[in-house]
């Protein structure tokens, strides 16, 4: 359960960390599954796993990836292909936390594993998740589970407190680029705080909170599981950017026969071809492609 102070922190700052949500056994099982995928990636020289609802690759590789030095950076919707992930993300203890912030009725939307393995350059540009998957209202959040101890050294993500009340364009020259304008980088870097977590901690972050992060400069992996949940009465305004076979599934409470509308404007974007948001944000350094 989140305390009253935790809920206030989320409402005021746009994020909060619930400690020790995943137990040692769950972490071990999730890491073992992921280790198997990293091993499997050694046999591929380009993004692979097109058994997804939109045909995009489930397994996204950074440039420089090879059998000797695997650089898997993203797995789209691990819950679609692994009961270990599905069981955790739909567990009562997790959806109850989510429900305290967007509930009582909650839908699963999508999930992904974001990896910053030692020696990779993976970084994440400043962005707001809601822009990727606009909904009729703002009761939507990302739950980010640390699979490793996460610090500034191994590339923790950074959040901009209070930015969930702000709106920024994620377009450049009219084209969706999935990150805010470079002129804002210094301001966000100044305002942002690092989300330092122990393995098993779960950060709950509002879908409008500006966040991003730098590369892993350590010799330790930084692996996180990210899951988007929405209130049952929040309906998508665009097709999901990372569609899951379970997108829209009720994981707590009951379905809503209505869409609740929030007054205001939301920037809409065109569909993009990249397998993951790393490519969209300009990190074209995907295995099998030339770096820009
Ligand atoms: O991997 C990270 O550090 C953050 C990922 C992220 O911002 C996202 O997937 O929206």
Task: Give a quick set of tags describing it.
292 residues; alpha+beta; Jelly Rolls; eight-stranded antiparallel β-sheet; four-stranded antiparallel β-sheet; globular; binds 2-oxoglutaric acid
| Poorly predicted parts | none
Fold-level CATH name:
Jelly Rolls
Distinct small molecules: 2-oxoglutaric acid
CATH class: Mainly Beta
Which structural class matches the secondary elements? alpha+beta
What's the shape? Answer: globular
Strand content: 15-25%
What is the assigned CATH homologous superfamily? q2cbj1_9rhob like domain
Total helix count?
Answer: 7
Query: Assembly state here?
Result: single chain
- Listing every helix as H and every strand as E from the N terminus to the C terminus, the arrangement reads HEHEEHHEEHEEEEHEEEEEH
What is the CA–CA distance across the termini? 47 Å
What is the total number of structural domains? 1
Indicate the percent of residues in helices. Answer: 10-25%
Biggest sheet record:
8 strands, antiparallel
Q: Which CATH-level-2 architecture?
A: Sandwich
Q: How many β-strand stretches?
A: 14
Mean pLDDT: 95
Taking all Cα atoms into account, the compactness measure Rg is: 18 Å
